[in-house]
Hints:
Elements: H1 3-27, H2 43-188, E1 199-206, E2 212-220, H3 222-235, H4 244-250, E3 252-258
Antiparallel strand pairs: 1-2, 1-3
Helix pairs in contact: 1-2, 2-3, 2-4
Amino acid sequence: MSPEALSVYKSLGVHAVIALMLLISVSFSPDPLPAAPSNAPMIEATFIDAQAIADQKRAQAQAEAQARAEEQERERKAQEAAEQKRQKALAERRAREKREAETAERQRQQELKRLAAQKEKERKEREAREKAEAERKKKEAQQKAEMERIMQEQLAQEQAAQQQRRRQQVMTEVERYQALIQQTIKRYLIDDDSYNGKTCRINIRLATTGYVTSIRVLGGDDALCRAAESAVRRAEELPVSDAPDVYEQLKDITLKVEMQ
């Protein structure tokens, strides 16, 4: 029920109570006063009735005012209680929203910290992997360089050994062909006892086919040198190796022709 309707009902109740009281006072009034003389004036009775009516109206107005005041007070208190309740609910809602906001902010900060920690962890792990990979590659490069160095040394040693063996082979071949050339020259040399114990040094240049391109006497017994030069010219071609490195040692050769 609204406050206005309640006020109306209370006002009607007050009027009903006043009317009932008037009815009771009339019903139970003492014996009627003796009739006034017929010549008594009617003004006094009329005044008494008007006063009573005025008193009733005043009492009714006071009661209505009191009822309205009480109703207004109740409404004021109800409004005040409602406002307090609203303010309390608003404060609770704001406090709840603040707590929720603070909780959300804490969660957000925690999430940011977690993400930052995770990124930092991933960065450190990535740097560790990169460092380990760099160390591995560096170690592999060092091992590879060391292996290449060892292989180069081994190869150089092998090549040196091969070259040494080849030089020995070449020298052996050169010595062999020098002996063959000596034998060829002596085969074409006219045997004369006067050459015994005498020597002659000659320089011979040969083509790759063994053809004699030039003869030069370097010194020795004149007769033996002339005979040796003549023997070389008669031979025209001397034994020579097909191996290039052996030929290099034979293409410009100095021989000692000696007769015993």
